[in-house]
Amino acid sequence: MREAHTSSSALAAPSLQGHLHPTLVQQAMSLIEQAQRIALLAHEHPDGDCLGSALGFAHILRHMGKVCIPVCADPAPDTFSFMPGLDSLQHTLGDEQFDLVIALDAGELTRFGAVYEQHKDFLQRVPKLNIDHHISSAGCGEVNIIEPTAAATGELLVLFQQQAGLPLPQEAAMCLLTGIITDTSSFQFTNTTPRTMEAAAVLLRAGAIPEVIVRPIYRSRPLPQVRLRALVTTQAQTACAGRLIWSYATDETLAACGANATMDDNMSGTLRDIEGVQIAAFFKSYGNPHETRLSLRCMEPYNAAEICLALGGGGHARAAGATLNMPIQEAMSHVVATLQHAIEQHDSEA
User: Are 204 and 240 in contact (CB under 8 A)?
Assistant: First the structure.
């Protein structure tokens, strides 16, 4: 194991040591140390965790002297404009001159969207390190660090940073804390553990400022986004005595609100927070009328990851998603029937 860097030694947290398998950490560090130009992939339709992980890890590796390029097929939502280094985000691997690819917050190469489609051959042959926390991840690297007990890939990267003794600049801390805050909804979700809070504390000691993250994500919204949220809520339908709720957005919905596609973040979470709801589904279809994306939120005893896995997607027990190759009305009919059946089956077994 490499020796701790001076810039991170004061931030060492003994309680965060040993959570990752030492052999995996050593193998990952071997890949990193042999590489000079590194591409860090964030999955398509980016969220705070994949962006924060790619940008944050890039800041860490740059302090080790590496040339790092964060890459995402889709542009980052305006909400995340505060993240240090966001202006370095690219949408292609360009000339493919990389010694290593680090795939973050997803365990399948197809989750990286157009970047995967445009660079399939290169991504098959280049050395890959995969770091992810989704329980549904199969792993897509020569070295795979997949830890479903981590609330976010941002938390997992703090564990890696601590165990490998890597530097932790303030810019990296801001980005990684963004991942933790967004994947726990500011530490409100049940995936928040004592270790999650300890990882966040390490980031605060490194200079991360929660207010800078929380305000644009949770408290400050443009008027078109507020209108979009209101319209989606107005269109919501319920079943199973209000325990199941669903709604949708299309290009027409966006136009009616003056909104854009990046403004629909956490719509399923908004629906889930309605009193009595146990399962909330948000459907959206933009541009391609034959493709519908599903965002699902579930309360216990229902498992969003299991439901979405059966639909070709994946995620977490409380939050997951899937893409269905069908028009939105057909997708809603199919998925709502599946969700109703899940509730009715649970009722009959209770």
Answer: no
Domains (ranges, CATH) in the chain?
A: 6-217 (3.90.1640.10), 223-349 (3.10.310.30)
For residue 296, the cross-strand partners are 281, 320
Residue 241: CB atoms within 10 Å = 8
Q: What residues have CB less than 8 Å from 104, skipping those under 6 apart?
A: 40, 41, 42, 43, 50, 53, 54, 57, 130, 131, 132, 153
- Between CA 193 and CA 344 the distance in angstroms is 31
Q: What is the mean pLDDT of the chain?
A: 94
pTM (predicted TM-score) = 0.83
Residues 6+ apart with CB under 8 A from 220: none
Model confidence over 93-115: pLDDT tens digits? Answer: 999 999 999 999 999 999 999 99
**Model pLDDT for residues 56-91, shown as the tens digit of each residue:** 999 999 999 999 999 999 999 989 999 999 999 999
* H-type alpha helices, the chain: 6-9, 22-34, 48-62, 114-118, 120-125, 153-164, 170-184, 194-205, 210-214, 223-234, 251-257, 267-272, 304-310, 328-349
Give me 115's structure tokens: 């970047």
Q: Is the dihedral of CA 89, 94, 96, 99 positive or negative?
A: negative
Tokens of 201: 């504390």
Residue type, 4: A
Residue 12 has pLDDT above 80, yes or no: no
Cα–Cα–Cα angle for 204, 205, 209, rounded to 5 degrees? 30
Report d(CA 306, CA 316) in Å as an integer: 8
Geometric angle at alpha carbon 200, from 195 and 205, rounded to 5°: 125
